[in-house]
Amino acid sequence: MYDAIPQVSPEALVVYCSDPRFQTAFEPFVENELGLAKGRYVPFVVAGGAGVLANPARLPKEFKFLRDRFALFHEHFACLQRLILINHEDCAYYKMLAKEVPGLREHAAQTAHWPRQDLPHIAATLHQLGAHYGWTVELYYARFADADHRQVTFERVSV
Fold this sequence. Notes:
This protein has helices at 23-33, 60-76, 92-100, 104-110, 114-117, 119-130; strands at 12-16, 41-45, 82-88, 136-144, 152-157. With 159 residues, it is α/β, with parallel strands linked by helices.
């Protein structure tokens, strides 16, 4: 048997990428650094995190998926107050976008930290999309802290 949490009142929705290299860093960061114990946040793990929100017109189906899930979480968990988005270095989703989405290849070639640079664009989309939710938005960028890719550090990104 495994434990469950019978009563939850999550205060945050945390959106991050499914990249397995970062999984051992994301959960402790959310719990220890952001102060959100299990049950106090809704983890929303999806390839690319919230990256699609930087290009909603170019990725309409993926945008609709995220938009619909945000609406569901808002409806189901009225207690949510914070939306925390974490993008990360060397994201495979972003590499796929550069190959498959017209116009993004040139953009990807111009920056090594495209997922970080997208965070202000994502925040702008969220402001238009979900201002009525009343959530505060927090943006973070995770990157490798060493050449062996064994340690991860997080940077808060302001808009």
